[in-house]
Task: inverse folding
């Protein structure tokens, strides 16, 4: 069985400050892990994915995430937040099946 | 555009109406999904199709009826819906969860 927990339902940062969105996962097998972003009234867009290659994964819009097996974590970071980063972010885990489990989401607010 | 197209983008229907949502992808993906996204709730998986065959029905009420005539098209037929069915309905496709899902922009459904 696989599952994912996003530790914060809401994160608020000031523009220009770092972003940290936390995600812990559980999987019986070597997982694939993903972060998606959803802007209001839009579909989900893939930000980045980890599929057992390099543990530090770089994505679009300056985001990156680090896979830490010992901590079963896949936290999403960005050095400097931009107003356009305000959105809902979903952490997703997948094992060997076509089944993907979504976290409950973290809403990121960016203050001017 | 992501390569997964959903129509219509917005739909308002009465509880006695019959309508259909359409999803189309020409990415060569073999698996297609319907998700329901309600305000302040986690993403809910509704139906899964692999190679046109339904492989998962996540206890969805019968007033939602999916149809997958081929690997590129997926429909969700709606009839006698309830106001609580108002939500964003998202379609996704994949060639394998290792690659992640590609989402459409969704249909915003309002039942009055």
Result:
């Amino acid at each position: 069985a696989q599952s994912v927990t996003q530790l914060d339902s809401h994160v608020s940062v000031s523009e220009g400050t770092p972003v940290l969105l936390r995600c812990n996962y559980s999987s019986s097998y070597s997982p694939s892990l993903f972060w998606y972003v959803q802007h209001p009234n839009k579909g989900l867009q893939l930000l980045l994915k980890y599929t057992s290659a390099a543990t530090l994964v770089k994505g679009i819009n300056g985001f990156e995430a680090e896979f830490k097996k010992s901590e079963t974590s896949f936290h999403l970071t960005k050095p400097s937040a931009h107003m356009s980063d305000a959105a809902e972010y979903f952490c997703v885990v997948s094992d060997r099946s076509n089944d993907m489990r979504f976290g409950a989401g973290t809403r990121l607010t960016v203050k001017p | 555009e992501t390569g997964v197209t959903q129509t219509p983008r917005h739909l308002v229907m009465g509880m006695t109406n019959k309508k259909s949502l359409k999803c189309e992808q020409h990415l060569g993906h073999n698996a297609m999904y319907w998700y329901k996204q309600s305000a302040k709730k986690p993403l809910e998986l509704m139906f899964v199709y692999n190679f046109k065959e339904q492989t998962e029905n996540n206890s969805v009420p019968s007033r939602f009826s999916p149809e997958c005539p081929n690997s590129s098209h997926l429909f969700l037929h709606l009839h006698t819906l309830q106001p609580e069915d108002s939500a964003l309905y998202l379609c996704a496709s994949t060639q394998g969860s290792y690659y992640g899902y590609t989402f459409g922009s969704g249909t915003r459904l309002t039942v009055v």
Notes: The mean pLDDT of chain B is 92.
